[in-house]
Amino acid sequence: GVYSLARHSSLQTLTEQMDSRDLRSVDSLRDILQSASQVRSAQNRALLAAALRRDHLPSQSPDAIERQWTQERDQCARQLADLGSMASAWQNDALTPQRAIAWRAVRTAAQEAQQALRLLSPEVERHFELINAGNIPEAVSHLPAVDQAMGNFEAKLNDAVHAADDQTRLGRSEVVTLAT
Hints:
Oligomer: single chain
Structural class: mainly alpha
Radius of gyration: 21 Å
């Protein structure tokens, strides 16, 4: 009787945590990935806009695109910081040691993605400098450095996604174990 009620209570608490925390982290990562996509898109649009302007075709100003890029980058940085903070708090009050470890992995992945974004920023800023100066050939030759930094950032984001997926799988496994 009492053991069954305690087990049911543990199961309900774990399920509620999964519903709120695991799904919130997945939603947060979805938003981060959307922002990251916008970061890449803005950087690519700037080079196209510069080429179109050079040929006297209508296009958006590279300066305007750079401002958009900066806004998207800043939003992505805030979202990663928020995810790291949430994961840290959830690590501290996790129901099991395994979930604490999994939340620490999410927090670490978010921090590493933030660092990769910080390393990406100077490369993209240099790219925009070259574009805004009208130095398209140099901007094109700088693309491999930008792509390398962007690839590193995207890899770190994928690590965060995998860590969140691992956390979700762990929660489901724990629910199954408690339910049986």
